[in-house]
Design brief:
alpha+beta, two-stranded antiparallel sheet, globular, disordered N terminus
């Protein structure tokens, strides 16, 4: 496959051997020696190596990923594969390349992501706030997707700052942009399904170092880092679903998973909106709203923070979720797997009280609490849409 989609002819019987899979010829070796330059500078691919046992591409820093891209560093790793920082010799710029594991299901997901990214780019009028795809190719059985290089994720900032909350004005700016991106996707009948702080990147890596409000046991002030620019972009479209297609029962990361997904009621646009609500709470408080690893505990946490689940949703729960209820009520704490699980639920507070610990008294507090209740509405039919949320007073900085 060539470096752009559709590079093969329909009647080709045998796959043409790619130039970047070819070792340096003796003439090229001799020329490199005369010039006293390593063969790598001739943009030759490294020797072929076996993938590791998990299907990850094996590489060394300084090598080429095709003759065009030089590998500079590893930027991240996930279940899908690895993200490498590379130098693009053709356009003379730094890029991030997502190198997918050579496993069928991840390759299939990568091709879905390429299709979604191309659709997002095709319809973009400059306000999508979605990461831009620059290129893609298949290299030694690894789908490689080339992106513009961005800064750290929101989760990276939370972790670096020892999970201190973001200032409410920064939450407002990030929230507005996130909703603009989600609204854009929904206008194209696309559901992201995996919105979380790890998938929201700052455009710039530049930051300010400011004293934090916490102090060490020795009385020294913590410092926290805040981005110089609040501009963000959304990434990771590998699990994006079209609104009219059948969705797998579970896709999203658990902490940000909507109640209707747990109950087996299907996927729709409101699933993304629930995730946005969870993200905004996390940015305000510094901690994930629902830190859980089990469905019944997750539902119990939701009820603890937001009140009881609507009976009509419980009645419609699929067979897999019926076991979480008795007589249309959540089987809690009777069904808890441990006392530790019960304690984890009990330590949670109502949403309003939770936000009040972190957002100063005034219009911003009442505004954001009202917004969050709209985003974290149990009933998907009653939950705010992205466009409705963008019209909320919180984003106009007008006290409710």
């Amino acid at each position: 496959m060539a470096e752009e989609k559709g590079g093969q002819h329909q009647h080709t019987r045998k796959r043409r051997r790619l130039t970047w899979d070819v070792a340096a010829s003796p003439a090229e070796q001799q020329e490199a020696e005369v010039r006293q330059q390593p063969v790598l500078c001739r943009h030759i691919s490294p020797p072929k190596r076996e993938d590791d046992r998990e299907g990850h591409y094996t590489y060394s820093l300084g090598e080429n990923l095709t003759p065009r891209y030089k590998i500079l560093s590893k930027m991240g790793e996930g279940t899908f594969g690895r993200v490498l920082e590379c130098w693009d010799r053709q356009n003379r710029e730094y890029v991030a390349i997502k190198v997918i594991r050579s496993i069928r299901k991840y390759r299939d997901a990568a091709m879905i992501e390429v299709d979604v990214l191309q659709q997002l780019a095709k319809n973009d009028k400059g306000r999508s706030r979605c990461v831009q795809i620059l290129n893609w190719f298949d290299y030694r059985n690894h789908i490689c997707i080339v992106f513009e290089k961005l800064g750290p994720s929101l989760f990276d900032y939370l972790k670096r700052n020892k999970y201190c909350p973001f200032p409410v004005d920064l939450v407002r700016e990030i929230g507005r942009q996130l909703l603009e991106s989600v609204a854009y996707m929904h206008s194209l009948c696309l559901i992201h399904t995996d919105l979380k702080p790890e998938n929201i990147l700052l455009v710039s890596p530049e930051y300010l170092k400011l004293p934090g409000y916490k102090r060490t046991s020795q009385g020294e002030a913590y410092f926290r880092c805040l981005p110089k620019s609040s501009e963000i972009k959304l990434i990771d479209f590998g699990s994006t679903a079209y609104d009219n297609q059948n969705h797998s029962s579970i896709v999203s990361t658990r902490h940000y998973r909507a109640p209707e997904v747990i109950l087996g009621l299907g996927w729709s646009y409101p699933c993304d909106m629930w995730s946005v609500g969870c993200i905004l709470v996390e940015l305000c408080s510094g901690e994930a709203l629902f830190q859980t690893h089990e469905n019944l505990e997750h539902l119990a946490m939701m009820e603890r923070v937001l009140g009881p689940l609507p009976e009509h949703m419980v009645r419609r729960a699929n067979r897999g979720a019926e076991k979480y209820f008795r007589r249309l009520r959540l089987n809690w704490p009777e069904g808890a797997v441990s006392r530790e699980s019960i304690r984890a639920v009990r330590k949670l507070d109502r949403l309003k009280n939770m936000i009040s610990q972190y957002v100063p008294v005034g219009g911003s507090r009442s505004c954001i609490v009202d917004l969050l209740h709209g985003l974290l509405e149990f009933d998907p039919a009653e939950r705010m849409t992205a466009r409705q949320a963008l019209d909320h007073p919180f984003f106009r900085n007008i006290p409710a």
